[in-house]
Design a protein that fits this description.
The protein is mainly β. It is about 5% helix and about 45% strand.
Length: about 120
């Protein structure tokens, strides 16, 4: 049987922002942790929803319709597929992401962070 996964311990293994790390697999999906600081660029995922769960800090997600979703620790938001968005964090936010394995975090394989498993 696999051991429990300590998300805080996994997050402690890296400091780079916007570089998600896969901590386990779930039904063909990567379960990842990431540190976010500053603004990410506007992007879209044409084939998948984008799942964000805030573990620590605060995250804002700007949507193409002018709406901003503000998330505190313990809150989650799913950006529907095809919706252009930009996550941002004024100070560091630590998040959990769930995406189908192989989904580029930037929406574009050419600009996506490499898949890293920890």
């Amino acid at each position: 049987m696999p051991s429990p996964i300590d998300l805080a311990a996994k997050l402690a293994t890296f400091s780079e922002a916007w570089q998600p790390r896969t901590v386990t697999l779930f039904n063909g999906h990567d379960v990842m942790v990431a540190r976010l600081r500053g603004e990410y660029h506007w992007h879209v995922h044409p084939d998948t929803d984008d799942f964000f769960l805030v573990l620590d800090g605060r995250l804002e997600i700007d949507l193409e319709d002018g709406t901003t979703v503000a998330l505190a620790p313990g809150q989650l938001y799913v950006v529907p597929r095809g919706v252009r968005h930009r996550p941002r964090a004024a100070e560091e936010a630590q998040i959990l992401l769930i995406e189908p394995t192989g989904t580029p975090n930037s929406g574009d394989p050419l600009t996506a962070a490499p898949r890293r498993v920890i």
